[in-house]
Amino acid sequence: MPPLTSQIPVLTAPTAAGKSALALQLAQDFDLEIISADAFTVYRGLDIGTAKPTPAERAAVPHHLLDMADVTDSYDVARYVREAEAAIAEVLERGRVPLVVGGTTFYLFALLRGLPLTPPADLGVRAAVEAELAERGLDALLADMAAHDPTEAARMERNPRRTVRATEVYRRTGQYPGAFGHSTPRFGYAVTAFTRPGPELEARMERRVGSMFAAGWAAEAAWLASQLDPATLPRPTAWQALGYREAWAVHTAELSETEAAARVVLASRQYAKRQLTAMRSQLGAQLLTPPQAGQRLRDGFGAGPVLAQG
């Protein structure tokens, strides 16, 4: 495994694999600052269900791009890239080293490759696609997309908002967003990715989901429902966070905690599979073990990588 080059280091892993704990330890050992790459820790109030770093962890190590938006906001990838690049530049200007950490591969891909140069949204066409989503369902829209471009359909990762946007662009232009090219990234990146054996990863998911419910996840989902109607279609971005609908169902007594936990673990396994596929195919990352990933990063930080500003 070669050491890190003079690029911005990125640490990624599937959900519940332990990337936040490894990042925190590395940050403390090498005096780093963490740039989050998570689509839901950007929201204020979503703390338990997103496994957001605790106040003590944030006091011990500087974290960036947490609590950036209200749950009623629609935080998108373009905003993320702008704010992540600004945070990275600010850390570098102070002579410190940023470590990008997260499992939202869509955000990481945009950092690495640049933002899609797609045309602005047409709200009329988007409204028609949203109505079709409500009537026909997500699977039907994805099947339509897969018939024309299977790669683009897979890239949606079953995200309703992204599927609506891609369908809107296709119906206006005859091309999906991936055909429009990308802007030039501000920085270069060195990606380190790791995973764990399936049974070990699932056991970690089960423990984490149980801990989240014990910490009051159902009440947090009830708070989210008080801010944003969970019945709205297409589903608001904050309600797309893994497990919140199940946690809400516990609060309303539609599901027992045991039933909800089993569903969240199943969804987590499915999400982890999509993450691993994206890490290999989109991020071009070799999947290491946790000790290998930690050693690779330690070797790089120990060598004192020179991170030039872009």
Automatic annotation (TrEMBL):
UniProt GO MF annotations: tRNA dimethylallyltransferase activity
User: What InterPro entries does the annotation carry?
Assistant: Dimethylallyltransferase, IPT, P-loop_NTPase
Amino acids binding ATP: A13, P14, T15, A16, A17, G18, K19, S20
Per UniProt, where does substrate bind? T15, A16, A17, G18, K19, S20
Q: What is its EC number?
A: 2.5.1.75
Q: Tell me which cofactor or cofactors this protein depends on.
A: Mg(2+)
The catalysed reaction is: adenosine(37) in tRNA + dimethylallyl diphosphate = N(6)-dimethylallyladenosine(37) in tRNA + diphosphate
Decide whether keyword Translocase is in the record: no
Site feature: Interaction with substrate tRNA: T104, R126
The UniProt keyword set, sorted, is:
ATP-binding, Magnesium, Nucleotide-binding, Transferase, tRNA processing
Describe its partners and assembly state. Answer: Monomer.
Please give the function described in this protein's UniProt entry.
Catalyzes the transfer of a dimethylallyl group onto the adenine at position 37 in tRNAs that read codons beginning with uridine, leading to the formation of N6-(dimethylallyl)adenosine (i(6)A).
Q: Which family does it belong to?
A: Belongs to the IPP transferase family.
> What is the protein's given name?
tRNA dimethylallyltransferase
Gene label: miaA
